[in-house]
Design a protein that fits this description.
The complex is a heterodimer of chains A (218) and B (82).
Chain A (H helix, E strand, L loop, with lengths): L9 H11 L8 H4 L3 E5 L5 H11 L3 E5 L23 H12 L4 E5 L8 H4 L5 E4 L4 H13 L6 E5 L12 E4 L4 E5 L11 H19 L6
Parallel strand pairs in A: 1-2, 1-4, 2-3, 4-5, 5-7
Antiparallel strand pairs in A: 6-7
Chain B lengths: L4 E9 L11 E6 L4 H7 L4 H4 L3 E4 L2 E2 L11 E5 L6
Parallel strand pairs in B: 1-5
Antiparallel strand pairs in B: 1-2, 3-4, 3-5
The chains are: A alpha/beta (218), B alpha+beta (82).
Chain lengths: 218, 82
């Protein structure tokens, strides 16, 4: 399929989007294409959240990461051998557009800090936290909770290491507009495997979809 | 005011080592206790305290916040990996 949406007519676009979403949960059809979601980090969590939301028909993703793709990423991240050495945001945008050429991707090849966080994600209603380092997780959560504006939601991951039981992985609420996904106890020191990282990413992606559907309770 | 106790509800998520207190239970603390003092009372080590994010009644609070009767203290300790 041609990845250049400009070469397709609006009619072709509408047919494609309709077909893409034809097996979806119907009440989301109209809102998904008008929603922008932020993804803070494009590694094991972020790249997988991004492809799940893209397959769902999300209209726009704002993605940010400073890193490049290396071989050790391929055990769990949504990248391929021909992405090696590329900036993650560039490779991810290209891979997402292989699923839906019409998705809008706003990308930032930069490290997210408390100073640029809310500027990067200013036009999103939900931010999915997808960092690897605990210091970055703490930074985004503290920044979010200390912020006076309360309109955005944060979906954060914590605990996905090793090959512990999948059934330990939960989604919890922390306050009114923060959701926590993970087993909350097994960290990266146990190794990071595709299965558990993807389960947590799927919890995050589903939580994002539920927030979009205004289903705020667990 | 010493020896007067108040009740708070304690919830925690993550590998926070709290012995003999079940999650979401009501605990008695001394009046005028700060979050930091309650964390010490619960046996949380100083080195762990700085990583714990504390919310009281769904609002983030500093460790110096003085807890009130019937407050809900929620603790979260993020861990790495992604």
């Amino acid at each position: 399929m041609n990845q250049q949406p400009t070469k397709m007519s609006n009619k072709e676009k509408n047919i494609f989007i309709k077909e893409l979403m034809s097996r979806n949960y119907k009440p989301l059809d109209k809102v998904l294409s008008n929603t922008a979601v932020g993804i803070a980090g494009c590694g094991g969590l972020g790249s997988n959240i991004a492809h799940m939301l893209t397959r769902s028909g999300i209209g726009k993703l704002v993605i940010a990461d400073f890193d490049t793709v290396v071989t050790s990423n391929l055990n769990r991240q949504f990248f391929f051998v021909d992405d090696l050495g590329r900036n993650k945001v560039d490779a991810l945008e290209e891979n997402l557009k292989k699923i839906n050429p019409y998705i809008q991707v706003e990308k930032y090849n930069t490290k997210i800090t408390s100073d640029n966080l809310f500027n990067i994600f200013k036009n999103t209603s939900i931010i999915a936290e997808a960092f690897d380092q605990v210091s970055q997780k703490t930074m985004i959560l503290n920044s979010f909770l200390e912020r006076k504006e309360k309109g955005q939601f944060l979906v954060l991951a914590s605990g996905m290491g090793g090959i512990e039981s999948s059934n330990l992985i939960k989604t919890k609420k922390f306050g009114n507009n923060v959701y926590l996904c993970g087993d909350f106890s097994h960290d990266f020191s146990l190794g990071l495997m595709a299965a558990r990282v993807n389960i947590v990413a799927a919890h995050q992606a589903n939580t994002v979809l539920r927030i979009i559907a205004e289903k705020f309770e667990l | 005011m010493k020896n007067i106790k108040i009740n708070i509800r304690l919830s925690y998520t993550g590998v926070i080592d709290i012995k003999n207190v079940s999650n979401s239970s009501i605990i008695k603390i001394d009046t005028d206790s700060s979050i930091d003092e309650v964390l010490s009372m619960l046996g949380i080590r100083k080195g762990h305290k700085k990583y714990i994010i504390s919310m009281v009644n769904d609002e983030k609070q500093k460790s110096t916040y003085i807890l009130q009767d019937n407050d809900h203290l929620s603790l979260f300790l993020p861990i790495g990996g992604g």
